[in-house]
Amino acid sequence: MLGPQAGSILVVGGTHGNEPNAPWLLKQWQYQPDDLQHSNFVLQLVHGNPEALADCRRYIERDLNRSFAAALLAEADQCSLEVRRARELLQAHGPEGVSPALVALDLHTTTAAMGNSLVVYGRRPADLALAAGIQQRLGLPVYLHEADQAQQGFLVECWPCGLVIEVGPVPQGLLHAGICRMSQLALEAALAVLDLAAAGSLRLPPALVVHRHLGSVDLPRHADGTPAALLHPRLQGGDWSPLRPADPVFLAAAGHAIPLAAVLPSRLRGEPCFWPVFINEAAYGEKGIAFSLTRRERWPLDEQALVALQGVAQALQRRQVSP
Ligand SMILES: [Zn+2]
Q1: Does 8-206+301-321 carry CATH code 3.40.630.10?
Q2: Beta pairing partners, 248
Q3: Angstrom distances, CA of residue 205 to CA of 165, 199, 307
Q4: Which of 107, 130, 231, 246 has its Cα between 20 and 30 A from that of 79?
C-alpha cells in the first residue's frame, strides 16, 4: 500500500547554499500554502543543502549538484557532506524512497544575465515534453546540457522526470523579490503542464527550441593559474545572443581583444555561430568556465515525448488516489 505522500513532486530550493531565493520561497509557501498555485498534486518542499545555506556558501565540501552520479553515490569511502546529503535526499524522496517523488523541480539562480530559463539534462522524452509545455506558456529558453564529461551527477537526473528552473541575474547570497517572482511563475507553469498531462489534455507545440551545450571556454590564464584576460565588455550580458568566431570574447591586460576563434576548442572550429550562456557566472570560475557555448536547434516533438510525460503525470495521480 502506498502512503499519502507517494508519487509526489519534489520541489528543491537551496541545492546551492549561496542561492537563497528559492529557500525563501519554500518558507513563504509554508506560511501561505495558497500563495503557490498548483493542482492537487502533493508537493514535497525540500531544502537541498541546509548546512551550506546557513553558511551562505555554494557547498561545504563539494558541489551537491554534481554529487548524484551513480558511481559516486555507490563509493563506500565517499563520505563528504554533500554525497551524504545526496544519499539522504534519495532515501527520503527518491523514486524508491520513503516518500517517493516521481518529478524533481530544482530551483536555482545565476549571476549571469540569462533571465528565466530551463535547464534540461540529456534527452529524456518526459523532460523534453515538460520543457516544451513550459516554453509554450512562458517562452523560456531551454539549455540542454549533455555529453560533458567534466560536469556530471545532477540532482534531477535521479528522478524519472525533472528539470532545473534557473533565474538571473542576481548576486550570490542576495534575496530579491523579482527573482522570487520569476522562479514562482516558472514553477507554477511546470505544475500546470503536469496537471494537463495527468488529465490527458496537454497539447504540445510541434517543436521544442533548445540551446544544446557544445562546450565551455575558460579565461586565458598565466602558468600560475591567474587570469591573463577578463571577459570582453561586449560579451558581458550577451547570454542567448549569437556569437561568431570573429567576435571579441576577452580583453587582455595589455589591452588587445581576443576573438572567440582564438580560444575555441578544436572540435568546435568550423561552427559558424554559437549562442553563449552562463557568461561570467560567478560560481563557475572554480570550474574553469568563463562561458558555455550552445547551438540553437529546433527539435520536432514526437508523440513519444507526450506519452512519456503523461505516463509520469498519471502515475502521480494514480498513486495519490491509492488507498
Ligand atoms: Zn545553483
Answers
A1: yes
A2: 259
A3: 20, 18, 14
A4: 107
Residues whose CB falls within 8 Å of the CB of residue 116, separated by 6 or more in sequence, listed in order: 138, 140, 165, 166, 167, 182, 183, 185, 186
**pLDDT tens-digit readout, 30-66:** 999 889 987 779 999 999 999 999 999 999 999 999 9
252, 243 in Cβ contact below 8 A? no
Q: Measured in angstroms, how far is the CA atom of residue 108 from the centroid of ligand 1?
A: 4
Q: Any idea which residue has 551550506 for its cell?
A: 52
> Residues 259-288: what's their mean pLDDT?
96
Ligand 1 is an ion; residues with CB less than 5 A from it: 16, 19, 108
Give the model's pLDDT for residue 319: 61
Helices 177-199 and 125-138, packing angle to 10 deg? 120
pTM: 0.95
Domain boundaries, the chain: 8-206+301-321, 217-298
Return the pLDDT at 1. 34
Nearest-Å Rg of the Cα atoms of the chain is 20
How many Å lie between the centroid of ligand 1 and the Cα of residue 25? 15
Task: List residues bridging with 107 in a β-sheet.
Answer: 13, 165
Tell how far the Cα of 42 is from the centroid of ligand 1, in angstroms: 24
